[in-house]
Automatic annotation (TrEMBL):
One of its GO terms (molecular function) is host cell surface receptor binding. Residues 1-146 form the Duffy-antigen binding domain. SUPFAM superfamilies: Duffy binding domain-like. This is Erythrocyte membrane protein 1. Pfam families: Duffy_binding. GO terms for cellular component: membrane.
Amino acid sequence: CMPPRRQKLCVDFLKQLKGQTDEKLVDAFIKSAAAETFLSWHKYKEDTQKEKATHTADNDLNKGIIPEDFIRQMYYTFGDYRDLCMNKNIGNDVSNVENKIKDVFSKADGTSSSNLSREVWWKKHGPKIWEGMLCALPGTENFKNKPDYKNPPEDFAKQPQFLRWLTEWNDDY
């Protein structure tokens, strides 16, 4: 059962992907992930301001801290984008996106036009996608290069999607 956060995952730029090049796919992933982070941040701020009238989430970012419960959402989101790239998505809501990604890795051996497998492609471009997510937050210069945020949560993202979703549901309820 797909968590609410994932039901609204921004894949607009991936849906609009035209062409089968690595560069266009990287661009579409970065833009989708950045848009998702931007929109999620504004929802998060609304939700936390209702709960904590004296605390604003932007204050944390200005101090160089991404709130723990929001960074967790970013980890789950990064994992979902990785699953799309690796063709390991268990949802059935983005088959058109999956087909566009499949077209990029359409060579007979399943590689891209640059001869990259999905795994190698993600290893090369995943950090750029993570950086795009960080850059979508206000005050990114305050935390982007901090050791806690600099590297993408690759080990977390490699966990099976079902287990991540189960954990996310458990954390939310």
